[in-house]
Amino acid sequence: MFKKFFSALVIVSLFFTQFTAVSAQEDDSLSRVEERGHLIAAISGTLYPSGYYNEDNELVGYNIDIIREVADRLGLEVEFMEMGVDGMLTSVKSGQVDLVAEGVQPTAEREKDFLIGEPIKYSFTSIVVRLSDNSGIESIEDFAGKKAAGGATTNYMQVAAQLGAELVTYDNATNDQYFLDVANGRTDFIPNDYYLQKTSIDFFSDLGVKLGNVFYNPSFSAFVYNNESNALQEAIDAVLVEMKEDGTLAEISAQYFNGDDVSVEQEEINGIKISDLPVIELED
């Protein structure tokens, strides 16, 4: 009896050992990148100040500098593939890119289909409206019937549609194009990340738009990976934690967000108490 039990135990042990070994061999996401010598990262290249081209035609920005520093600490280079937001998740799912470096908000659906990395930015949703009349929007109840501008599959646009807005979608448009369309009435508002909008409006201060007094949905954004790329995600996350602890993320944030540190969760931002903001859940 004991001998049979012991034999069964050995078989089970061998099975799990072999299964673990096979699983480890199957996840070659990190070793594949190391052999190649560079990461392939999806980025829009049009979103100031996350990733954009400066006056010297150099690709720079908060997310750009972060992933370059991560790659450097891992002994790698970075190749950026520029595309619209709507194509990024498809590209990482198909293996065309190693990660989405644009900074994506997690949802229950995305967490089922992808690996969500260590947070790189904490924020909430705000809106850009016309300077002259606030686009007629004083609260989220006023979204109904208004034209919202953005990428078709973003959380921001899905929530706006759920609140009754008409969606006007763009494929990898620049900040100034978005702002000019609001100013001239083609669209009414742009729902997006507070820090991105605040910094962009400061930069494009003469385009006839402003930050509306409507804030909701506290959230964080992160790099996103294929759901079989555990090894790569863990390696990059470890470096991001290191960069938080040594102050590198705070330094990069201050450079691009006018001194603000977006890499840590705040209780209050510019007088806005985060815990008081409304949360609009996406419906299934």
Automatic annotation (TrEMBL):
InterPro entries named in the record: Solute-binding_3/MltF_N
Record has Amino-acid biosynthesis as a keyword:
no
Q: Which UniProt keywords apply?
A: Signal
Q: Name one Pfam family in it.
A: SBP_bac_3
Query: In this protein, which residues make up the domain named Solute-binding protein family 3/N-terminal?
Result: 38-260
From what superkingdom does this record's organism come?
Bacteria
Give the signal peptide, or none: 1-24
Among PANTHER family, the record links this protein to: ABC TRANSPORTER EXTRACELLULAR-BINDING PROTEIN YCKB-RELATED, MEMBRANE-BOUND LYTIC MUREIN TRANSGLYCOSYLASE F
Record-given protein name: Transporter substrate-binding domain-containing protein
Question: Source organism lineage?
Answer: Bacteria, Bacillati, Bacillota, Bacilli, Lactobacillales
